Amino acid sequence: MSTPAIFSKTRAGATRFALIWMQVVSEPFIAFYTLLLFILRKDLGATPLQISIFAAIRPLMAVFSFYWSSNLLRNRSKLISNFMGAWVLSFLPFLCLPFIHNIYFVMFCAAIYQLFARATIPSKMEILKLNLEKEKREKLFSRLYVLGFIESIGLGLFVGKLLDTHIGAWQVLFPLAAILSLSSVLIQMRIPLPENLKEDPNVLPITKGRILQPIKDSIHLMRSRPDFAHFQWGFMIGGFALMFITPALHLYYVDSLQMTHHNLAIARYIWMGIGVTSSTFLWRRALNSTPIHQLTSRVILGFSLFPLTLLFAPLSLLFVNAAFFFYGIAQAGSHLLWNLSGTLFAQSEDSSKFSGVNILMVGLRGVVAPLLGGLACSLFSPFTILIVGMVICFLGAGLGSIEKFRAKGFRGGFLEV
Hints:
mainly alpha, two-stranded antiparallel ribbon, 16 helices, 2 strands, 1% strand, MFS_trans_sf, Sugar_transport-like, transmembrane helix, transmembrane, membrane
Protein backbone atom coordinates (compact mmCIF):
# COMPACT_ATOMS: atom_id res chain seq x y z
CA MET A 1 0.00 0.00 0.00
CA SER A 2 1.30 3.44 -0.91
CA THR A 3 2.21 6.03 1.65
CA PRO A 4 -0.54 8.54 0.65
CA ALA A 5 -3.21 5.84 1.07
CA ILE A 6 -1.90 4.95 4.54
CA PHE A 7 -1.79 8.62 5.50
CA SER A 8 -5.31 9.18 4.21
CA LYS A 9 -6.59 6.15 6.13
CA THR A 10 -4.89 7.41 9.29
CA ARG A 11 -6.51 10.83 8.98
CA ALA A 12 -9.90 9.30 8.32
CA GLY A 13 -9.65 7.01 11.35
CA ALA A 14 -8.56 9.80 13.69
CA THR A 15 -11.30 12.11 12.42
CA ARG A 16 -13.96 9.42 12.75
CA PHE A 17 -12.96 8.60 16.33
CA ALA A 18 -12.83 12.27 17.36
CA LEU A 19 -16.29 13.04 15.99
CA ILE A 20 -17.87 9.93 17.52
CA TRP A 21 -16.37 10.79 20.92
CA MET A 22 -17.55 14.39 20.63
CA GLN A 23 -21.08 13.28 19.79
CA VAL A 24 -21.27 10.87 22.71
CA VAL A 25 -20.00 13.30 25.37
CA SER A 26 -21.86 16.39 24.11
CA GLU A 27 -25.31 14.87 23.62
CA PRO A 28 -26.32 15.16 27.32
CA PHE A 29 -25.65 18.90 27.16
CA ILE A 30 -27.56 19.26 23.88
CA ALA A 31 -30.47 17.32 25.34
CA PHE A 32 -30.67 19.61 28.38
CA TYR A 33 -30.24 22.68 26.20
CA THR A 34 -33.28 21.83 24.07
CA LEU A 35 -35.45 22.19 27.20
CA LEU A 36 -33.99 25.56 28.19
CA LEU A 37 -36.80 27.72 26.77
CA PHE A 38 -39.34 25.53 28.56
CA ILE A 39 -37.30 25.82 31.78
CA LEU A 40 -37.23 29.60 31.45
CA ARG A 41 -41.02 29.71 31.34
CA LYS A 42 -41.80 26.86 33.74
CA ASP A 43 -39.10 27.33 36.41
CA LEU A 44 -38.05 30.97 36.11
CA GLY A 45 -41.35 32.51 35.02
CA ALA A 46 -39.97 34.17 31.91
CA THR A 47 -42.32 36.71 30.32
CA PRO A 48 -43.40 36.50 26.66
CA LEU A 49 -41.00 39.38 25.93
CA GLN A 50 -38.08 37.54 27.56
CA ILE A 51 -38.96 34.38 25.63
CA SER A 52 -39.04 36.38 22.40
CA ILE A 53 -35.66 37.96 23.16
CA PHE A 54 -34.21 34.56 24.00
CA ALA A 55 -35.61 33.07 20.79
CA ALA A 56 -34.13 35.96 18.79
CA ILE A 57 -30.73 35.84 20.50
CA ARG A 58 -30.05 32.25 19.51
CA PRO A 59 -30.18 32.70 15.71
CA LEU A 60 -28.93 36.29 15.91
CA MET A 61 -25.67 35.00 17.36
CA ALA A 62 -25.17 33.19 14.06
CA VAL A 63 -24.30 36.55 12.50
CA PHE A 64 -21.40 36.97 14.92
CA SER A 65 -20.32 33.34 14.68
CA PHE A 66 -20.13 33.88 10.92
CA TYR A 67 -17.14 36.17 11.55
CA TRP A 68 -15.34 33.61 13.73
CA SER A 69 -14.65 31.38 10.74
CA SER A 70 -14.56 34.01 7.98
CA ASN A 71 -10.74 34.09 7.83
CA LEU A 72 -10.49 30.35 7.25
CA LEU A 73 -10.76 31.07 3.53
CA ARG A 74 -7.33 32.67 3.63
CA ASN A 75 -5.67 30.68 6.43
CA ARG A 76 -6.76 27.05 6.30
CA SER A 77 -3.93 25.97 8.62
CA LYS A 78 -6.04 27.35 11.50
CA LEU A 79 -8.87 24.82 11.02
CA ILE A 80 -8.17 22.80 14.18
CA SER A 81 -7.42 25.75 16.47
CA ASN A 82 -10.48 27.61 15.12
CA PHE A 83 -12.66 24.60 15.86
CA MET A 84 -11.22 23.89 19.33
CA GLY A 85 -11.41 27.52 20.43
CA ALA A 86 -15.09 27.82 19.52
CA TRP A 87 -15.87 24.47 21.17
CA VAL A 88 -14.33 25.50 24.52
CA LEU A 89 -15.88 28.98 24.59
CA SER A 90 -19.37 27.63 23.86
CA PHE A 91 -19.55 25.68 27.14
CA LEU A 92 -17.56 27.81 29.61
CA PRO A 93 -20.35 30.18 30.84
CA PHE A 94 -22.53 27.24 31.95
CA LEU A 95 -19.96 26.33 34.60
CA CYS A 96 -21.19 29.39 36.56
CA LEU A 97 -24.88 28.39 36.66
CA PRO A 98 -24.77 26.91 40.21
CA PHE A 99 -23.67 30.31 41.52
CA ILE A 100 -25.68 32.75 39.38
CA HIS A 101 -29.47 32.30 39.24
CA ASN A 102 -30.42 35.38 37.23
CA ILE A 103 -32.64 34.75 34.19
CA TYR A 104 -30.59 37.19 32.12
CA PHE A 105 -27.40 35.30 32.92
CA VAL A 106 -29.05 32.12 31.63
CA MET A 107 -29.88 34.01 28.45
CA PHE A 108 -26.26 35.20 28.25
CA CYS A 109 -25.03 31.60 28.57
CA ALA A 110 -27.37 30.52 25.81
CA ALA A 111 -26.23 33.37 23.57
CA ILE A 112 -22.56 32.47 24.01
CA TYR A 113 -23.32 28.83 23.34
CA GLN A 114 -25.22 29.65 20.16
CA LEU A 115 -22.48 31.98 18.98
CA PHE A 116 -19.63 29.49 19.31
CA ALA A 117 -21.54 26.26 18.65
CA ARG A 118 -22.49 27.67 15.26
CA ALA A 119 -18.91 28.90 14.79
CA THR A 120 -17.59 25.32 14.91
CA ILE A 121 -19.61 24.23 11.87
CA PRO A 122 -17.54 25.62 8.95
CA SER A 123 -14.25 24.30 10.32
CA LYS A 124 -15.77 20.95 11.29
CA MET A 125 -17.32 20.41 7.86
CA GLU A 126 -14.09 21.39 6.10
CA ILE A 127 -12.13 18.97 8.30
CA LEU A 128 -14.59 16.26 7.31
CA LYS A 129 -14.25 17.18 3.64
CA LEU A 130 -10.44 17.07 3.81
CA ASN A 131 -10.15 13.79 5.73
CA LEU A 132 -13.02 11.62 4.46
CA GLU A 133 -14.27 10.93 0.95
CA LYS A 134 -17.85 11.92 0.10
CA GLU A 135 -19.66 8.62 0.70
CA LYS A 136 -17.87 7.90 3.99
CA ARG A 137 -18.33 11.50 5.09
CA GLU A 138 -22.10 11.41 4.57
CA LYS A 139 -22.39 7.99 6.17
CA LEU A 140 -20.45 9.10 9.26
CA PHE A 141 -22.38 12.35 9.57
CA SER A 142 -25.77 10.63 9.39
CA ARG A 143 -24.71 7.92 11.84
CA LEU A 144 -23.45 10.51 14.31
CA TYR A 145 -26.81 12.26 14.18
CA VAL A 146 -28.67 9.01 14.81
CA LEU A 147 -26.26 8.12 17.63
CA GLY A 148 -27.03 11.41 19.32
CA PHE A 149 -30.77 10.81 19.23
CA ILE A 150 -30.44 7.22 20.42
CA GLU A 151 -28.60 8.68 23.40
CA SER A 152 -31.32 11.34 23.86
CA ILE A 153 -34.04 8.65 23.86
CA GLY A 154 -32.31 7.08 26.85
CA LEU A 155 -32.02 10.46 28.57
CA GLY A 156 -35.71 11.13 27.96
CA LEU A 157 -36.67 8.22 30.21
CA PHE A 158 -35.50 9.99 33.36
CA VAL A 159 -34.54 13.65 32.71
CA GLY A 160 -38.11 14.99 32.75
CA LYS A 161 -38.98 13.19 36.00
CA LEU A 162 -35.73 14.41 37.55
CA LEU A 163 -36.51 18.04 36.69
CA ASP A 164 -40.09 17.69 37.98
CA THR A 165 -39.12 16.13 41.32
CA HIS A 166 -35.97 18.18 42.03
CA ILE A 167 -36.61 21.86 41.52
CA GLY A 168 -33.50 23.62 40.24
CA ALA A 169 -31.69 20.39 39.29
CA TRP A 170 -30.97 21.89 35.88
CA GLN A 171 -28.54 24.32 37.52
CA VAL A 172 -26.30 21.40 38.41
CA LEU A 173 -26.96 19.23 35.35
CA PHE A 174 -25.88 21.92 32.88
CA PRO A 175 -22.38 22.44 34.37
CA LEU A 176 -21.80 18.69 34.65
CA ALA A 177 -22.82 18.18 31.03
CA ALA A 178 -20.61 21.11 29.99
CA ILE A 179 -17.56 19.59 31.72
CA LEU A 180 -18.24 16.27 29.99
CA SER A 181 -18.40 18.05 26.61
CA LEU A 182 -15.16 19.93 27.26
CA SER A 183 -13.32 16.66 27.83
CA SER A 184 -13.36 16.00 24.07
CA VAL A 185 -10.79 18.78 23.50
CA LEU A 186 -8.06 16.25 24.32
CA ILE A 187 -9.23 14.19 21.33
CA GLN A 188 -9.81 17.14 18.98
CA MET A 189 -6.21 18.34 19.19
CA ARG A 190 -5.05 15.04 17.71
CA ILE A 191 -7.03 15.33 14.46
CA PRO A 192 -4.48 15.42 11.60
CA LEU A 193 -4.86 17.50 8.43
CA PRO A 194 -3.30 17.15 4.97
CA GLU A 195 0.03 18.85 4.52
CA ASN A 196 0.43 21.99 2.41
CA LEU A 197 -3.20 23.11 2.41
CA LYS A 198 -3.75 25.47 -0.52
CA GLU A 199 -5.76 28.68 -0.45
CA ASP A 200 -9.13 28.59 -2.22
CA PRO A 201 -8.62 30.15 -5.69
CA ASN A 202 -12.20 31.50 -5.90
CA VAL A 203 -11.77 34.11 -3.15
CA LEU A 204 -11.97 37.89 -3.46
CA PRO A 205 -8.81 39.90 -2.68
CA ILE A 206 -8.85 40.99 0.96
CA THR A 207 -9.64 44.62 1.70
CA LYS A 208 -9.09 46.86 4.71
CA GLY A 209 -12.70 46.48 5.86
CA ARG A 210 -12.51 43.50 8.21
CA ILE A 211 -16.22 43.77 9.04
CA LEU A 212 -17.44 44.09 5.46
CA GLN A 213 -15.04 41.57 3.90
CA PRO A 214 -16.96 38.42 4.97
CA ILE A 215 -20.21 40.01 3.74
CA LYS A 216 -18.58 40.76 0.38
CA ASP A 217 -17.33 37.17 0.19
CA SER A 218 -20.85 35.87 0.81
CA ILE A 219 -22.48 38.15 -1.77
CA HIS A 220 -19.82 37.18 -4.29
CA LEU A 221 -20.52 33.50 -3.61
CA MET A 222 -24.30 33.86 -3.94
CA ARG A 223 -23.95 35.79 -7.21
CA SER A 224 -21.48 33.35 -8.69
CA ARG A 225 -23.46 30.28 -7.60
CA PRO A 226 -27.20 30.80 -8.31
CA ASP A 227 -27.84 27.13 -7.54
CA PHE A 228 -26.65 27.74 -3.98
CA ALA A 229 -28.63 30.99 -3.76
CA HIS A 230 -31.84 29.15 -4.74
CA PHE A 231 -31.14 26.56 -2.08
CA GLN A 232 -30.83 29.33 0.52
CA TRP A 233 -34.25 30.75 -0.38
CA GLY A 234 -35.94 27.46 0.41
CA PHE A 235 -34.36 27.21 3.83
CA MET A 236 -35.03 30.89 4.48
CA ILE A 237 -38.82 30.46 4.17
CA GLY A 238 -39.06 27.27 6.23
CA GLY A 239 -36.64 28.55 8.86
CA PHE A 240 -38.52 31.84 9.15
CA ALA A 241 -41.76 29.98 9.88
CA LEU A 242 -40.19 27.85 12.63
CA MET A 243 -38.50 30.84 14.28
CA PHE A 244 -41.72 32.85 14.07
CA ILE A 245 -43.69 30.29 16.10
CA THR A 246 -40.91 29.67 18.68
CA PRO A 247 -42.11 32.24 21.28
CA ALA A 248 -45.69 30.97 20.99
CA LEU A 249 -44.69 27.31 21.35
CA HIS A 250 -43.54 27.53 24.95
CA LEU A 251 -46.48 29.68 25.99
CA TYR A 252 -48.65 27.03 24.38
CA TYR A 253 -46.88 24.15 26.20
CA VAL A 254 -46.91 25.77 29.65
CA ASP A 255 -50.00 27.98 29.72
CA SER A 256 -52.42 26.30 27.31
CA LEU A 257 -51.50 22.61 27.65
CA GLN A 258 -50.18 22.68 31.26
CA MET A 259 -47.33 20.33 30.30
CA THR A 260 -44.71 19.10 32.78
CA HIS A 261 -40.99 18.66 32.17
CA HIS A 262 -41.67 14.94 31.84
CA ASN A 263 -44.36 15.46 29.18
CA LEU A 264 -42.07 17.60 27.05
CA ALA A 265 -39.02 15.40 27.62
CA ILE A 266 -40.93 12.32 26.40
CA ALA A 267 -42.07 14.19 23.28
CA ARG A 268 -38.76 15.92 22.57
CA TYR A 269 -36.33 13.14 23.44
CA ILE A 270 -38.19 9.94 22.66
CA TRP A 271 -40.74 10.71 19.93
CA MET A 272 -38.57 13.18 18.08
CA GLY A 273 -35.68 10.74 18.50
CA ILE A 274 -37.75 7.96 16.93
CA GLY A 275 -38.58 10.27 14.01
CA VAL A 276 -34.92 11.11 13.47
CA THR A 277 -33.54 7.59 13.81
CA SER A 278 -36.21 6.02 11.61
CA SER A 279 -35.70 8.45 8.72
CA THR A 280 -32.08 9.63 8.69
CA PHE A 281 -30.77 6.84 6.46
CA LEU A 282 -33.66 7.35 4.03
CA TRP A 283 -32.77 11.04 3.80
CA ARG A 284 -29.11 10.18 3.27
CA ARG A 285 -30.02 7.85 0.42
CA ALA A 286 -32.23 10.54 -1.11
CA LEU A 287 -29.37 13.03 -0.84
CA ASN A 288 -27.58 11.23 -3.66
CA SER A 289 -30.59 10.48 -5.87
CA THR A 290 -33.03 13.40 -5.59
CA PRO A 291 -32.65 17.00 -6.83
CA ILE A 292 -31.79 19.20 -3.91
CA HIS A 293 -34.69 21.60 -4.51
CA GLN A 294 -37.11 18.68 -4.16
CA LEU A 295 -35.48 17.56 -0.93
CA THR A 296 -35.68 21.10 0.45
CA SER A 297 -39.37 21.30 -0.42
CA ARG A 298 -40.04 17.96 1.31
CA VAL A 299 -38.21 19.08 4.43
CA ILE A 300 -40.29 22.27 4.65
CA LEU A 301 -43.49 20.30 4.06
CA GLY A 302 -42.47 17.97 6.89
CA PHE A 303 -41.96 20.91 9.22
CA SER A 304 -45.45 22.21 8.40
CA LEU A 305 -46.90 19.04 9.94
CA PHE A 306 -45.43 20.06 13.31
CA PRO A 307 -47.68 23.10 14.00
CA LEU A 308 -50.57 21.40 12.20
CA THR A 309 -50.49 18.43 14.59
CA LEU A 310 -49.98 20.64 17.64
CA LEU A 311 -53.31 22.32 16.90
CA PHE A 312 -55.02 19.12 18.05
CA ALA A 313 -53.01 18.88 21.30
CA PRO A 314 -55.85 20.34 23.47
CA LEU A 315 -57.75 17.15 22.70
CA SER A 316 -54.90 14.92 23.91
CA LEU A 317 -51.20 15.32 24.69
CA LEU A 318 -50.62 12.33 22.39
CA PHE A 319 -50.78 14.84 19.55
CA VAL A 320 -47.71 16.57 21.02
CA ASN A 321 -45.84 13.27 20.72
CA ALA A 322 -47.06 12.87 17.13
CA ALA A 323 -46.03 16.46 16.31
CA PHE A 324 -42.50 15.86 17.57
CA PHE A 325 -42.35 12.60 15.62
CA PHE A 326 -43.10 14.51 12.40
CA TYR A 327 -40.66 17.22 13.46
CA GLY A 328 -37.97 14.57 13.97
CA ILE A 329 -38.46 13.22 10.45
CA ALA A 330 -38.20 16.71 8.94
CA GLN A 331 -35.29 17.66 11.20
CA ALA A 332 -33.32 14.62 10.06
CA GLY A 333 -33.54 15.79 6.46
CA SER A 334 -32.90 19.41 7.41
CA HIS A 335 -29.84 18.50 9.47
CA LEU A 336 -28.22 16.55 6.65
CA LEU A 337 -29.09 19.09 3.96
CA TRP A 338 -28.10 22.17 5.93
CA ASN A 339 -24.82 20.82 7.31
CA LEU A 340 -23.66 18.85 4.26
CA SER A 341 -24.73 21.43 1.69
CA GLY A 342 -21.42 23.25 2.05
CA THR A 343 -19.39 20.15 1.17
CA LEU A 344 -21.83 19.21 -1.61
CA PHE A 345 -21.88 22.58 -3.35
CA ALA A 346 -18.16 23.20 -2.81
CA GLN A 347 -16.86 20.17 -4.74
CA SER A 348 -13.13 21.10 -5.07
CA GLU A 349 -13.50 24.53 -3.41
CA ASP A 350 -13.24 25.39 0.29
CA SER A 351 -16.56 24.32 1.86
CA SER A 352 -16.25 26.68 4.84
CA LYS A 353 -17.44 29.65 2.75
CA PHE A 354 -20.68 27.80 1.86
CA SER A 355 -21.22 26.74 5.47
CA GLY A 356 -20.52 30.31 6.55
CA VAL A 357 -23.33 31.61 4.33
CA ASN A 358 -25.68 29.02 5.85
CA ILE A 359 -24.88 30.43 9.29
CA LEU A 360 -25.22 34.04 8.14
CA MET A 361 -28.69 33.35 6.71
CA VAL A 362 -29.79 31.78 9.99
CA GLY A 363 -28.74 34.96 11.74
CA LEU A 364 -30.51 37.24 9.27
CA ARG A 365 -33.88 35.52 9.63
CA GLY A 366 -33.26 35.27 13.36
CA VAL A 367 -33.08 39.05 13.60
CA VAL A 368 -36.68 39.35 12.40
CA ALA A 369 -38.73 36.16 12.82
CA PRO A 370 -38.68 35.56 16.63
CA LEU A 371 -39.31 39.23 17.42
CA LEU A 372 -42.26 39.29 15.03
CA GLY A 373 -43.47 36.09 16.69
CA GLY A 374 -43.12 37.67 20.13
CA LEU A 375 -45.03 40.75 19.00
CA ALA A 376 -47.74 38.52 17.60
CA CYS A 377 -47.99 36.79 21.00
CA SER A 378 -49.16 40.08 22.52
CA LEU A 379 -51.86 40.41 19.87
CA PHE A 380 -53.00 36.87 19.16
CA SER A 381 -53.25 33.52 20.91
CA PRO A 382 -50.50 30.89 20.50
CA PHE A 383 -53.08 28.79 18.63
CA THR A 384 -53.43 31.49 15.96
CA ILE A 385 -49.67 31.91 15.63
CA LEU A 386 -49.26 28.18 15.05
CA ILE A 387 -51.73 28.44 12.18
CA VAL A 388 -49.77 31.33 10.64
CA GLY A 389 -46.50 29.39 10.93
CA MET A 390 -48.10 26.35 9.33
CA VAL A 391 -49.35 28.42 6.38
CA ILE A 392 -45.88 29.96 5.84
CA CYS A 393 -44.36 26.48 5.78
CA PHE A 394 -46.93 25.28 3.24
CA LEU A 395 -46.20 28.30 1.07
CA GLY A 396 -42.46 27.66 1.34
CA ALA A 397 -42.88 24.02 0.32
CA GLY A 398 -44.99 25.10 -2.65
CA LEU A 399 -42.54 27.79 -3.76
CA GLY A 400 -39.69 25.30 -3.50
CA SER A 401 -41.31 23.18 -6.19
CA ILE A 402 -41.72 26.05 -8.66
CA GLU A 403 -39.29 25.89 -11.56
CA LYS A 404 -37.72 29.30 -10.96
CA PHE A 405 -36.62 28.20 -7.47
CA ARG A 406 -34.85 25.11 -8.78
CA ALA A 407 -31.10 24.85 -9.06
CA LYS A 408 -30.99 23.77 -12.71
CA GLY A 409 -28.89 20.69 -13.34
CA PHE A 410 -28.17 20.13 -9.63
CA ARG A 411 -28.82 16.68 -8.22
CA GLY A 412 -27.74 15.28 -4.93
CA GLY A 413 -25.15 17.99 -4.39
CA PHE A 414 -23.33 17.81 -7.74
CA LEU A 415 -23.56 20.03 -10.78
CA GLU A 416 -24.35 17.97 -13.84
CA VAL A 417 -22.14 18.91 -16.78
